[in-house]
Amino acid sequence: MKFEALALDALTEIFNMGVGQAAHALSQIAGDSVLLTVPRVSVLSRGEVTEHMGGVGMASVSAVRQRFSGAINAEAVLMFPAESGLQLVQMMVGGELPLEQLAEMEQEALSEVGNILLNSVMASVADALKIELDGALPSVELSHVHTVLHPEHDPGGQVLLIDIQFEVAAREVQGLLAFLLDVASQGLLEQMLTRFLNQADS
Questions:
Q1: What is the predicted pLDDT for the residue at 94?
Q2: Which of 69, 72, 79, 173 is the most buried (most CB within 10 A)?
Q3: Which of 84, 62, 86 lies closest to 148, judged by CA?
Q4: What is the CATH topology of the domain spanning 5-201?
Q5: Confidence (pTM)
């Protein structure tokens, strides 16, 4: 992906709208205000993402994966540090539940959080670019980030990476949202963003 600065700015704006919608939906579930940071969008190789996440203590991650198809094909992966999975569940359900009960809820709760966030972000992309996207059911996995991103299939493949910070009741969890696109979808997305920017200027 060879996104220019203006295209990355446009993506940041589009993703931010989706994140804002997700924050509202998650606030209703948590019964408390859920704040999500304005996303920072960057483009890295899969190897660079692995190095970056290992450097910030996210070598092992709890990941929610969801495939989207339609005008473009993309795999969206929401990742949290493995040890933050239970913390995020606790933030969302409130109170001080026993550890055993939290562990039982972790996969289901992560799946729900991921489903809301990923679908909100992709719906924002579809609305802004005037395209149709269909999402498959999300899956949850606990693994090393190297495995989650499948770099062995395409070590040089590019990743759209969004930094997201959850804050509920003054507690914070850092997450990363990665978009993996095939070569054809990368080119299509670049064309769509160019059209989006031209329409915004007209």
A1: 66
A2: 79
A3: 62
A4: Chemotaxis protein chec (3.40.1550)
A5: 0.85
